[in-house]
Write a structure and sequence with these properties.
The chain is built from 6 helices and 7 strands. The protein has helices at residues 16-23, 43-51, 65-78, 95-100, 124-133, 168-195, and strands at residues 5-11, 31-38, 55-57, 83-86, 105-109, 137-144, 154-161. It is globular and about 50 Å long.
Length: 225
Amino acid sequence: MHTPLNVAVFASGGGTNFQALLDHPRTPDGWRVAVLIMNRDADAVRRADTAGVPVRVIPTKDRDRGDVAEETLQTLEEFAIDVVLLSGYLRRLPSEVVERYEGRILNVHPALLPDFGGVGMYGMNVHRAVLASDVEVTGATVHFVTDAYDDGAILAQWQVQVLPRDTPEDLAVRVLRVEHELYPKAVDHLCAALAADRPVERMMDVRLNEPHIEPRSTENTEDQR
């Protein structure tokens, strides 16, 4: 048995993916959420307080990027962080952080990358673009973070059917349910590989014929990821 890996979660909003990470069953030697890092006050802070997880707010608006990078790295070092998880974090990570934690930073995106990714593709914007494209399948993607938006290697994907009468809000609810299931499992997969000092292989994608999961509460989907 080894010491669990320390995980930092970055969020900007309601934090339902953060909650899914907190709720996910883990082995004692797997990983643990050591700190929540926010760039503003939001409901994710209350979730962390309830779970007894320390919170650090690192403002990013109108700040020098070098100062943000320095404060972020200091915080990650303070908590001896091994893995960084973005969970609805609406700011680009400083390049210094991406470089320091290369291969150890994950993000969850509400579409099947490489489609519907890039600058401006977040939240309901993604689901509107999906419906405007007339694709029949969307889903969730867990990918490694690089300096370019949504451009890192894909670790896992889960498909979600686009239904004929879907609104962006309908689609957001179903994709978010999948994110809640997929993201913690992808973190398990990454941390197991890191702990064993072996290469991280892409997980088997979850296809449309897989059984659906039970829904979580999905009120205020626009700002809850």
